[in-house]
Design brief:
The complex is a heterodimer of chains A (about 90) and B (about 220). Chain A has about 90 residues and is an all-alpha fold. In chain A, about 70% of the residues lie in helices and about 0% in strands. Chain A has helices at about 1-15, 40-45, 45-85. Mean pLDDT of chain A is about 80; it is low at about 15-20. The chains are: A mainly alpha (about 90), B mainly alpha (about 220). The interface between A and B is large, with 40 and 46 residues. Chain B: It comes from Roseivirga ehrenbergii (strain DSM 102268 / JCM 13514 / KCTC 12282 / NCIMB 14502 / KMM 6017).
């Protein structure tokens, strides 16, 4: 809990040190049509293809990591139980 | 299961980062264009690295105070996870720089300082391997860890800001990372991303600490 609070406060402190800078982002920055963005990819929905691929990769890696974690938990149980008995 | 909540949080936050980072509205800025989204991936690596290395230094001090070898395990594995994130940060930075600053390595003051910082931590890992005795290794590398951390802070947070020509935003005398971060729409992705990636790094470190402890238990 203490650690969690520390992280939380850290976030606030980071926000408070942000100051006015040379290139400020304003609401207009979101509407500036002169700047080229991947608008076509978004309008025809192809961006979701990329998002789907990345999500599948991440879910796969997550499941693998969880299974490694479980395996280590099992080993921990075995090893430390053995030690306690001996 | 109760103490695993932070691992679930890591997965949730990184999933959110991947989704929101790609799909949510981003400011339309010259030169950066769509690459502003790298903020949630490249910059967060550095934040994660600093947080993990801070934790590593804290465990180094804890070890030096108590002499408990398990604390040294935590210290070294957190440092390794931090170095991994730093290495990923420098590689992703080179890719990003190639398309925005024109070359992967422009000798920018922050790039150089980050590279030196990583070299200092590589030396930490090499130093550890050069010693056989467990307690001696832990003590020497614990002390080195504190010095490495003390070197990292000016390298990453002070020196680049003294350089008026740094290409990185937030440098040239301006404290804080003023440009992207002022924007609240980016911030709602950026801060969860920092926490998510950091927790992912901590999880990987956690897995390795536990294997180390199993190994040690089997040796005894």
């Amino acid at each position: 809990m203490k650690k969690f609070l520390t992280i939380l406060f850290l976030c606030f402190s980071l926000a408070s040190i942000a100051q006015d800078g040379a290139y400020e982002i304003t609401d207009d920055s979101y509407k500036d049509q002169t700047v080229e963005m991947a608008d076509t990819m978004r309008s025809n929905g192809k961006i979701y293809v990329v998002v789907a691929v990345i999500m599948i990769l991440f879910v796969g890696l997550s499941i693998y990591t969880i299974s490694v974690d479980k395996k280590i938990s099992k080993l921990e149980k075995e090893v430390f139980k053995e030690k306690a008995n001996s | 299961m109760k103490k695993n909540w932070w691992k679930a949080l890591a997965l949730i936050l990184v999933t959110y980062t991947l989704l929101a980072g790609l799909l949510m509205d981003a400011p339309r800025l010259n030169i950066l264009n769509e690459t502003i989204r790298n903020l949630h991936f490249h910059v967060t690596m550095w934040f994660g690295m600093v947080i993990l290395l801070t934790a590593s230094m804290v465990y180094a001090i804890k070890y030096l105070r108590s002499g408990q070898i398990t604390l040294d395990d935590k210290s070294v594995e957190l440092a390794k996870a931090g170095v991994l994130m730093g290495a990923l940060g420098i590689i992703t930075g080179a890719v990003w720089a190639n398309y925005t600053w024109g070359e992967p390595w422009s000798g920018d003051s922050k790039q150089n300082a980050a590279a030196i910082c990583l070299l200092i931590y590589f030396a930490y890992l090499v130093l550890r391997n050069s010693m056989k005795d467990e307690q001696q290794r832990a003590r020497v590398s614990g002390v080195y860890n504190i010095f490495a951390y003390a070197a990292m802070i000016p390298l990453l947070f002070i020196l680049p800001r003294l350089d008026p020509n740094s290409l990185h935003p937030g440098n040239g005398g301006n404290p804080g990372f003023n440009s992207y971060d002022l924007d609240s729409k980016l911030r709602v992705i950026f801060y969860p991303a920092v926490i998510g990636w950091t927790l992912m790094g901590a999880w990987l470190a956690n897995l390795r600490v536990r294997t180390r402890q199993i190994e040690r238990a089997l040796e005894d």
